[in-house]
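Predict structure. Chain length: 154.
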Amino acid sequence: MERRAFLKIAGGVAAGLGLTGIVSVKPARATPAEMQEAIRAVVGAARITPGKVKLELPPLIENGNAVPLTVTVDSPMTEAEHVRVVHVFTEKNPQPYVVSFHLGPRAGRARVSTRMRLADSQNVVAVCQLSDGSLWSDSAAVVVTLAACLEDGI
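Prediction complete.
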């Protein structure tokens, strides 16, 4: 086979595969049930108790592309009693499991801050695991006027 013929065929196949990927893309949105499944996939069947965790999000966000988030846990952060991990979940983003922060007694404070994208108005949940294995949580509702994470229409 000549080089030119091979390149034409390979280009046609690549373009066809690329168009197939574009045509078959559907908007991805998690549901509250999928968020609960994601939480259970991380923590298993362990009991999650409300309290000790404070999730801070603005109640109204104009643009969902950079939503500030702070999680604070009531813990002395000593060798005997400290925060091991903080997980953040959302109910309507394409991926409900957003982030994990691994901490230890040397962290000094049980407080983490970041920014995240929100696809729509929704509830955000923070689940914290302490060194004794107990799980604690808090949630916050956020109204987003301009959604992020849009996958259709791009």
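Summary: Residues 27-146 form a domain with the Immunoglobulin-like fold (CATH 2.60.40.2470).
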